[in-house]
Every structure is written in C-alpha cells, then in structure tokens.
Amino acid sequence: MADKAFKILLLMKRKPGMSVEAFRDYYENHHVPLALNYPAANTRYIRRYLEPQPHAESGTNEELPYDVITELWFDDEEIFKSTVEYLSTTVMPDDVVNDELNLFDRPTMRIATVVECETDMSAQSAG
Predict the structure, then answer these.
(1) What burial class does residue 60 get, using C-beta atoms within 10 Å of its C-beta: 0-12 exposed, 13-18 middle, 19+ buried?
(2) Tens digits of per-residue pLDDT, 83-111?
(3) Cα(26)–Cα(91) distance, rounded to whole angstroms?
(4) Distance between alpha carbon 38 and the CA centroid of its chain, in Å?
(5) 126 pLDDT band (50/70/90 cuts)?
(6) 110: part of which helix (H) or strand (E)?
(7) What is the DSSP letter of 64?
(8) By the number of CB atoms within 10 A of the CB, which of 3, 26, 90, 122 ranks highest?
C-alpha cells in the first residue's frame, strides 16, 4: 500500500472573455512561476485542465463550470491541515491576488479536500 497523501483541490474558471488557450498559457507561463516564488510545503503541484466531451444521451457539449482542477499534494498531515486553514481563512498576498484577477473568475473559485477510494483493477482481470 502506498504512503498516504493529503490533497487540496482548487476548482477554477477562467475570467470571462479569456480563451482556453490564453488561459492555459498564462497559467503555466506566468501564474505558476509567480506561485513558485512563495515557499511551499506541498510535495506536488498539478494542474488538470478540463476538456468537455459530448454527453452520450443528449449530445450536448456545454462549457463546464471549471476550466482547471489544481491539486496540491502533501505528505505531512499537519502541514496539510494548516494549509487548508490558511487557504480557507486568509487572502493570498497582493501580487498573487492581482495576478489571479488577470486569469480567474475569482468569485467562482472553490477549494475542497479529497478522500480517495481506489478499486484494485488487477483483481478484476484475475478472475
């Protein structure tokens, strides 16, 4: 069994009028380097860009409420808990907030923690 990892998810929508391509480019090439200026206790920093796909029954392929799910991973539970507390009660530094205004629809941003349950698929194929 793998070591336990603790995760924070940040669900974010690009600011109105910004293209998906411009959003991804700005996030990767401007916002990520800015965020890395601040010491972080997380062990992984992952951006998962969402690409909507057609619904099998309706055929609709509407825009999703979020464009990216950012994952912050932690090995240490106490650091994880203190980071959750910080993110849910403290406004980020001014330069980060100002940069986020160039990128995100800030009022729609959401934070969540994760409880993972994984199915061992190797047992399925062995039977």
Answers:
(1) exposed
(2) 999 999 988 889 999 999 999 999 999 99
(3) 21
(4) 17
(5) low
(6) strand 110-113
(7) P
(8) 26
